[in-house]
Request: fold
Amino acid sequence: MSKINRFVLPLAGFALLVVLLAVGLKQAPEKGIIISPLVGKPAPGFELPDLLQPGNKVASSQYQGQWYLVNVWGSWCVACRVEHEALLQIKAQSRVPIIGIDWNDADDAGLEWLSKLGNPYTRVASDSEGRTAIAYGVTAAPESFLINPDGVIVKKQTGVMTPESWQRDFLPLVAGAAR
Amino acid sequence: MIPEIGHFALILALLLALVQAGFGLLGPRSGQPRYVEAIPFAVAGQFVFTALAMGCLVTSFVQYDFSVKYVAENSNSALPLFYRISALWGAHEGSLLLWIFVLSVWTVAVTIKSRSLPQSFMARVLGILGLLSVGFLLFTLATSNPFLRLDPAVPDGRDLNPVLQDFALAIHPPMLYTGYVGLSVAFAFACAAMIEGKLDQTWARWTRPWTTLAWSFLTAGIALGSWWAYYELGWGGFWFWDPVENASFMPWLVSTALIHSLAVTDKRGLFKSWTLLLAICGFSLSLLGTFLVRSGVLVSVHSFAADPTRGIFILAFLVLVIGGALALYAWRAPLLKSQAGFEITSRESFLLFNNILLVIAAAVIFGGTMAPMVSDALGQGALSVGPQYFNPSFLLPVLPLLALLSVGMHAGWKRGNLARVRRPVLGTLALAVALSVAVCFGAYDFDAVLMPVGVALGIWIALSALVDPIDRLRRGLSLPAGILGMSVAHIGLALLTIGITVVQSATKELDTAVAIGSSAKLGAYQFRFDSTKAMEGPNYSALQAQVTVLHGGKVAAVLAPQKRSYWVQQSPMTEAAISARWDRDLFAAMGEDLGNKTWSLRLQVRPLIQFVWFGALIMMIGGIISGLDRRYRVPKEARDVELVAGAAAAGPAA
Reply:
């Protein structure tokens, strides 16, 4: 044993430790991805005050038998502001009605938002207490649910909907069924 | 907008850190002084931008900006302002930002205080600190950015983990991080000395105050964590050998060893390569602690942000930093030779034992912490290592450490004359044993052998720590801050030892079912369960019990333990009630509702438990007094330093 060996020992010990840590890291559990349990299940029914026509109700039963998109948003939601442009485009291009659910919002703020930015929605329901959003398992906005004529949720988008994701993930489902 | 400014500030800080690292490490070799002269500007700029980033995140929390993912995940509109601010370091991303900010503060302090050191040496020190900063900034920006917006957004935040809504825990991370990160200064000084190849004892002298201050913060951080665990987790203990606790305790033990070995290297030029290795290991263990907590490799109550991708990044960073430093050590350390010798009874030799025993203690904890991982990696299945392992194996090195401490404090440098120190050693020992027996028999009906032993060791240390300062004052000598701080810290250790010993061997506890209106007896105390009532906090609702504790017919305390339910996270929390007095704690926690107005209650009487934290506090104060000693600060006054050091060396033996 020459003298230098003694001073290499800490480095060797550390190398051993690194191997151990690397093995440990490989075995560390992976993060799970949450898939909505609602996809493939009947959409929860709702009957809420109409934001644009006071006194009227927006109800899921009114759309039984046709394709429609439920979009949960709020004027407090920055991401919804981003999504808004995409929804306006989708409205211009497709005939699928979009039902907006104004979640946890003051009616005034919601109306101001729509008058300032344009209205992409066929109807807008005011869910100021958030009961419908809870029924849909919404944890954050925006979220969108595509519902088929049988009232079943066939697709869910968590986060901002883009024209691309609409074209790629949603429209083929509607078109495929129509054929 | 504000989060984006914070994000951008972090990117600018990264660029400046790159400049600091590049100019610091390569500048001195280029022979162009302007590179080296530019470094302080990079340091200052980095401080400004990390402070700006901190300010942006605080603003987002204060203004309830739930569009920021980190804010939404760690606060809520009902969360009080104080916890909205402390929520900044309530989880992984913000903790990292705090880490970076603290590193920047230390770097600025080193830059300002060390202007008189050789320029090329300082450049390298700052270069290494810059490199660490680059690593952490990259890590934050690439894997753990606290400024990301939340998509999809939420109307309200998920709230700060209720466990973290507590005053002690709000200030525990900054303290602990200041300690962890402070060890990087000793690390940088050691690496710079190795790169320069100038391994005389001067680097050790320059390092001493930084290490001592970092150690003080580490002490405070660990003590706060333990205090929090005691009254917030409601388990009634103060130390659980949890992997995360161990991760902070190992650097503490090693830096304690480092403080002592730096003293020897500074004063006598001995243990040079050993001191280098300790300086590397101290900081490496704090980095390793970060890895263990953040990567999900070890499962613990604390690993709130386990994520394997982050683990890979930290592991690569560990390899670069620790591997690099150890390679440097393997290359440079063989050049070191110590000329001076010392006798077996000298202070040097006692400090050598101190170092060996402290490192053994750290190794014992390291082994216990890593064992579950090793057994997992070898496919042996999960193995759990608990207090049954840690308590006895930790005592094995620590008992002789405490015993040798008292003797060592009386020994002189270079050659210890046993005959001369016999009187103070035996005198203090006899007094300590007598006092210990009196206390243990008088105040507690003890049945553990260790109790009088531990109390005697504690008293012995306290008495021994007083001998030198009293002797100096009586002879009209000055009492330098370094020596005063040392005595204070050792008295703190004595109180800690006495506290741990007594609370471990004389605690009485009882888990029992008690109906409202009846009472339970525990030792000399009577716990009467009076009533329960519902109540509301700012962001939780609770059921609160009233327990009156009687001692000798008189009311000693009225306790109000709670079972809380936080609205947002829905998790039930046990809020133990503790009545603390200097000589005992009375403790009550609510268990389950057994129906029929009967609850299971956990009742405890814990003597002297306050000594544990009080002792740690005194240790911290001692460290700060010592760290601020002017003698370590100014290389210009080298002559004074030698004179005082000479007096210090002659003092105890004379």
Summary: The radius of gyration of chain A is 25 Å. The longest helix of chain A spans residues 4-27.
